[in-house]
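Data deposition worksheet. Section B asks for the primary sequence of the deposited chain exactly as it was used as input, without tags or linkers unless they were present during the calculation. Section C holds the resulting structure in token form. Section D is free text for depositor observations; keep each observation to a single sentence. Incomplete worksheets are returned to the depositor.
Section A, Depositor: J.P.
Section B:
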Amino acid sequence: MFFRRGTTTRAREGAASLLPDVLEQVEDELSQVTADGAYDSRNCYDLIREREARAAIPPRDGAKIWQHGNTKRERHIRDENLRAIRRKGRREWKRESGYHRPARSFARKFINWCRQR
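Section C:
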């Protein structure tokens, strides 16, 4: 099941500030939260981790590792995403992570709706 939520923000308001409200509306268990680079923030990753979901958020260009592998703490999913992008490339990471799956699903529904008209 996909939960799709679109919203707009004011210029000073970041898109990431909306994530707590969006996640609060979803009562079902989440396996993955997919969002664009505007949600590449510690707060967003922490909220997603609290829901025990995977974060499919592409790190912004020029992103740096937050928590290096030589620490004893649990690896941060954002850093794992960044490492995978460095190894495989952004396009392959998006394919493997299912990043475009919600958009394709929405596009298919839209195309079918257009055909019915």
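Section D:
The first helix runs from residue 19 to 25.
The mean pLDDT is 76.
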